[in-house]
Write a structure and sequence with these properties.
This protein has 306 residues and is of the alpha/beta class. Helices cover 22% and strands 28% of the residues. Bound molecules: NADP nicotinamide-adenine-dinucleotide phosphate. The site of NADP nicotinamide-adenine-dinucleotide phosphate has 21 residues, from helix 4.
């Protein structure tokens, strides 16, 4: 294969939208994906707020539709993990984990983010044995059991609601006395009889031998400590961006999210960033898609004016 003009790293909604717009602009594009397309959409069950689907849509179905659409006008695709990239005289060079190297004129980073850990004792040891970061994947194992969800954002509340399909009881443990999630989700969760909020509370440890048995909790207002018996705990306490492979010249905020301008350009010419790995106020499928379109347009402009 000749050198691509553009490499898009990651095929979540931001990367797929960039691929669609780049291929329609007749940019020779390579879409690189570590495992399979979809990004964090694969971690959720149902999407209720992507415009054009008034009844909502199963997340995997939206992934299939987006993948088919992104490929429709012709792009190259490859599985591979980028371990480093560097600006060189004739473009940008990407190094892959398998030892391959790719030279290109422009790169769109669409590597998304991963769920953050609580970093509580027992969490790591019991991951996969009752500690989970994906309700869609693991929720069905907890039919008629008791689970806890940790976090107060959109993900925690949405996934707590999803877990009520299976679990007998869902504790929603939040470190403050007010949820961060959008109002509609809050209303649904707080009126759901199976969900019991546990306010002002943090998890001090996850306990169990071969499976999760309980959580040690601390109420931050009263200072009271307690033990909550649960069969599983789902942790949704925010996102950490997948940006550690980038060189220091690509400027990031203190949490590692990539800083861009309104064209999605980073501090390094020829390198753009889109979607959840970018510093921005609203991380949604709909904003990821907008980022991808804008970045492809910027690359098209760059390639024709350079
Ligand atoms: P988030 O919005 O950053 O919320 C993280 C939650 O975890 C917050 O409630 C935070 O508490 C809590 N938290 C953080 N660190 C903690 C710790 N160490 N211990 C206990 N609690 C902790 O993350 P998210 O819910 O994963 O959402 C990420 C992005 O995706 C957001 O932009 C969100 O809107 C978006 N999203 C959208 C949808 C949707 O539209 N349907 C669905 C999922 C996600 P505080 O509130 O006290 O900070």
């Amino acid at each position: 294969m000749d050198n691509p003009q553009l490499v898009i790293i990651g095929s979540g909604p931001a990367g797929m939208a960039a691929a669609l717009y780049a291929s329609r602009a007749r940019i020779k594009t390579l879409l690189l994906e570590r495992i399979s397309p979809g990004g964090q959409m694969l971690l959720t069950h149902w999407v209720d707020n992507y415009l054009g689907f008034p009844d909502g849509i199963m997340a995997y179905e939206l992934v299939e539709k987006m993948t088919a659409h992104a490929k429709r006008f012709g792009i190259d695709e490859m599985n591979g993990e980028v371990v480093s990239l560097a600006k060189v005289q004739d473009g940008i060079r990407l190094e892959l984990a398998n030892g391959d190297s790719i030279l290109t004129r422009a790169v769109i980073i669409a590597t998304g983010a991963n769920p953050k850990r609580l970093n509580a004792p027992g969490e790591q040891e019991l991951t996969g044995k009752g500690v989970s970061y994906c309700a869609t994947c693991d929720g069905p194992f907890y039919r008629d059991q008791t689970v806890a969800v940790v976090g107060g954002g959109d993900t925690a509340v949405e996934e707590a609601l999803f877990l009520t399909k299976f679990a007998r009881k869902v504790y929603l443990i939040h470190r403050r006395d007010r949820l961060r999630a959008v109002a509609l989700l809050q209303e649904k969760a707080l009126s759901e009889p199976k969900i019991e909020p546990v306010w002002n509370t943090v998890v001090e440890s996850v306990n169990g031998v071969n499976a999760v048995e309980s959580l040690s909790l601390l109420n931050k207002v009263t200072g009271e400590r307690s033990e909550l018996p649960v069969n599983g705990v789902f942790v949704f306490v925010g996102l950490a961006p997948n940006t550690s492979f980038l060189p220091l010249e690509v400027k990031r905020d203190e949490q590692g999210f990539i800083l861009t301008d309104e064209w999605m350009k980073t501090s390094v010419p020829g390198i753009l960033a889109v979607g959840d790995c970018r510093a921005k106020p609203l991380r949604q499928i709909i904003t990821a898609v907008g980022d991808g379109a804008t970045a492809a347009f910027a690359v098209s402009h760059m390639l024709t004016t350079e």
